[in-house]
Write a structure and sequence with these properties.
With 241 residues, the protein is mainly alpha-helical. The chain is built from nine helices and two strands; from the N terminus they run αααββαααααα. It has a two-stranded antiparallel sheet with strand order 1-2.
């Protein structure tokens, strides 16, 4: 806990930027849900007691999956794959975009409490914001017409948005920020990628050949598993008992 507090203090501006992005994701999700409820005359609150409880359950599952991350052979070791968006996507389909963002945020907070940060919060921000870039398009598309076709379309769109956004966000912001906070030249980070794949010789190619395939793979696997199990889980998730 002391290490986490020290990291927080050392990287205060970055943490505040992180929290600003969290607030932006919540506002986007809230506005979309409010518009959908207004359109359908639904007066249910955005966060009911049941939804809050289910967000807690899905967040707990998500943080376990998040901490079971593993390296991938085509990227430097600081890139790790995990499937914590699986419970978040199921929660998003069941309870809406706000629930999706809250699950992602709670997952990151729990991970920081249990494990701390080894990337000066850069990896944690990346996981949250890129996860939201997948979950929000998928859940928003599904929210306005809840059927299998829209679920598939939402997953495909979400995966593509995550891949494009994640690649650009890494190249333009995350990798330079990681280098800045660690006092590590960008060329050294690129060199780690070059050692694995000779085609990687710049920040852009590092993002294209490491981040893009990782996000494409992650979105595809999470989408397929969700489509296979969501229909069976849906009656349980929506049960009033």
């Amino acid at each position: 806990m002391n290490d986490l507090a020290a990291s927080f203090a050392e990287n205060l501006i970055f943490v505040l930027e992180f929290l600003g992005l969290v607030a932006a994701m919540v506002i986007i999700a809230y506005v979309v849900e409010k518009l959908e409820r207004k359109k359908n005359g639904n007066k249910e609150r955005t966060l009911t007691t049941r939804k809050i409880a289910m967000i807690g359950v899905f967040s707990a599952i998500a943080v376990i999956l998040h901490m079971l991350d593993f390296p991938i052979p085509f990227a430097p070791e600081f890139y790790k794959m995990d499937f914590s968006e699986l419970p978040a996507l199921i929660g998003a389909f069941a309870f809406g975009p706000v629930a999706a963002v809250m699950i992602e945020f709670c997952k990151i907070i729990l991970k920081l409490l249990f494990k701390g940060t080894s990337t000066a919060f850069v990896g944690d921000l990346a996981n949250f914001i890129i996860g939201c870039s997948f979950l929000l398009p998928a859940s928003i598309i599904y929210l306005f017409r809840k059927n299998k076709k829209n679920a598939v379309i939402g997953c495909v769109v979400g995966t593509l948005v995550m891949t494009v956004f994640g690649t650009a966000f890494n190249a333009v912001y995350l990798l330079p920020k990681f280098a800045e906070l660690y006092g590590m030249p960008l060329d050294s980070i690129v060199g780690l990628g070059h050692a694995i794949n000779p085609s990687i010789n710049s920040v852009t190619t590092l993002a294209l050949f490491a981040v893009a395939p990782m996000n494409l793979m992650k979105g595809g696997i999470v989408s397929i598993v969700t489509m296979l199990i969501y229909k069976k889980l849906s009656p349980i998730l929506h049960s009033k008992k």
